[in-house]
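Page 42, continued from yesterday. The earlier attempt failed because a stray header line got pasted into the input along with the sequence. Redoing it now with the clean sequence only.
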Amino acid sequence: MISAGMARSVAVDLGSTRIKAAALMDDGTLRPLGSVGAPRLYGAGLRREGNAETYARAAEELIDRALAGLARGIRVGITTQRSSFVVWETSSGAPLSPLVSWQDRRAIDRCAQLALAADEIERRTGLRLSPHYFAPKLATLIDEDAGLGAALGDGRARVGTLDAYMISRLTAGRVVATDRTMAARTLLYDLDQDNWCPALLERFDVPLRALPAIEPTADRSIEIGRTARLATSIADQSAALLAVSDPERPTALVNLGTGTFVLRDVASAARCAGYLTGPILSDDARSTRYALEGPINGGGPALDRFGSGPTTLSERDPAPLAFAIPDTAGLGAPHWRPELTLRLSSAAEALGPADRRRVVLEGLLFRIREVLEGLFPEGSPSRIVFAGGLSQDRSIGCGLAAVLERPVERLEDTEAGLTATARLAAGLTPYASPRTTEIVPTPLGAYLPEKFIRWQAWLRALLESEP
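This time it went through. Structure tokens are written below.
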């Protein structure tokens, strides 16, 4: 039991698979306060959605338990999965749509209709036109349900990413707000104007009055319930990058989970062709930090299709002609081919499940190297830190060091993003030098750098054959 005076802040992680809460203690350590499984997603084909009410109630019950007995007015931070969203009734807060997951790609056709506007959208938002994002999926919902569009237009309904939906519920509808790190993942936020973009709202048929207000990431003070104040709300990948970004050493983060995200911290909103730009932190002084990002739309689920592992790497390549694209939700950066999902070469298809798992792991390692080279054209960063659920697979670290031909660091703090969120909520800098373990290249996977060149050629041929 935590006494009221021992905790500086509380952080809540609204994740895709788990919802977690923890307290930042006076000595700087993070103490778990509880965890519950997130309701499972459902849907066939391109659709991936969950029960919004069930998710919200699970989160609310966990937050209530986490805050019980803590000091009145304790500061709370929320970190949230990006791009997942809900439409809800303004008067009651009841959801009018499912929780549409970031993994959902129902908007492929809507994106195809807007292909001629892709360059404008990328210039304004720092994002690619992709069905993974909020705006095209919301437009698709409105196309399917004219009543939903009418309710959003006349104020009877609101829409927002998961953070905005939960903040609205936690404040009984008094506050409907998001922060820049989440707004920037909607395809509706103009990076340079720092606001919702009227031209993009028109393109996606989204009424401005339905959207949340955009507020800073940190330095907020929103009363939630009777005992706490929301001080920070931040996207999960932003929190993860801030947790490992040493101001003195250029750092790349490879975050491996359901999807794989490769990020670097940058000072400005400069664009990089084929990659994403977005804010990772803003405060009340309107000081903003940014990141360049290369999403790989695959990770654990791609590997798990071929058994539970562990994956084994050898010193020599057992299948030189076996290649894979690991992106289960459409090929991501820098290619952006949403229709091109998990793919094996014919030689890989002929292998058994364990060998196919290894080939998919190789494909994931190759995609990480490809993205890192794009994000750091000036040369390799001082540090490459990898984290996330897959980081516990020994072959990931061994393979990364091998394919990159350099040491890498595994983040040992499995809740670093939650810690960074709690530190922001407490008014501290998010970086606290988390513990890492260095992994150096060994003979295992020594064949990967040479195979990476051949994988690139295979991928180019595949892309050219399926324009």
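Notes: The chain has 15 helices and 23 strands.
Reminder to self: strip header lines before submitting.
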